Amino acid sequence: DQQVKQNSPSLSVQEGRISILNCDYTNSMFDYFLWYKKYPAEGPTFLISISSIKDKNEDGRFTVFLNKSAKHLSLHIVPSQPGDSAVYFCAANAFGSGNTGKLIFGQGTTLQVKP
Amino acid sequence: DSGVTQTPKHLITATGQRVTLRCSPRSGDLSVYWYQQSLDQGLQFLIQYYNGEERAKGNILERFSAQQFPDLHSELNLSSLELGDSALYFCASSVAHNEKLFFGSGTQLSVL
Fold first, then answer.
1. I want to staple B76 with a disulfide (CB 3.0 to 4.6 A). Which of A92, B21, B92, B102 is the partner?
2. Contact A51, A27 (CB under 8 A)
């Protein structure tokens, strides 16, 4: 049962343009969502998060949008830079439901930003 | 550097063998999580420990076990290894039941 899904395995974008990575979830108990970024030979690193009480959170070039009714979130990167080329994982947890803190991850989307 | 240390970085072994993966969490973090990343798959949650006690269990095989020691480091034991156990194993830690996890760089296990 894949509770968090990233349906696009890969995305290629030109430098300077917008990158949009998408994520869908099925568990309505999820109340906190995160994006992690992973470079080869490294562990995932936290990028940005959003609580279910918000619909948008922005941090520099990165913005996460949450559409609770559609159970969908997206990560926008503007402008995209070659250094953004990595695997991006969407993750969620049901923090307010007595969750232990474990995150449920999607399969990841490989972003390639071309110079 | 996340502050989470995993050893070894690479491990090559044969089917039927047993291995131990080690994780030292960030200083002050009480929760340790183990994840498995197989080819073309996302990060699959295996197990979580909090201050020495098992807190949550995911899709962990009976051949796998883990523990967290009094100094808060954790070990993941994989036994009767099969080819399909080849994967990248990540350890993560957090302060408590915190939403943000910090990951180590992983142990790449190859079962031949």
1. B21
2. no
Is A42 close to B105, i.e. CB distance below 8 A? yes
The helix/strand/coil state of B83 is: helix
Closest by CA position to A67, among listed A84, A50, A47, A48: A50
Q: Chain A contact for B4, CB < 8 A?
A: yes
Cα distance from A88 to chain B (closest Cα, Å)?
10
Q: Which two tokens stand for residue B58?
A: 């995911």
Candidates B58, B100, B76; CA nearest to B6 is B76
pLDDT band, very low/low/confident/very high, at B1 (cuts 50, 70, 90):
confident
| pLDDT tens column, B38-84 | 876 789 999 999 999 999 898 899 999 999 999 999 999 999 999 99
Q: How far is CA B79 from the centre of its chain?
A: 14
What DSSP letter does each residue of B10-62 carry, written as one string? EEEE-TT--EEEEEEPPTT--EEEEEEE-TT--EEEEEEEETTEEEEE-S--T
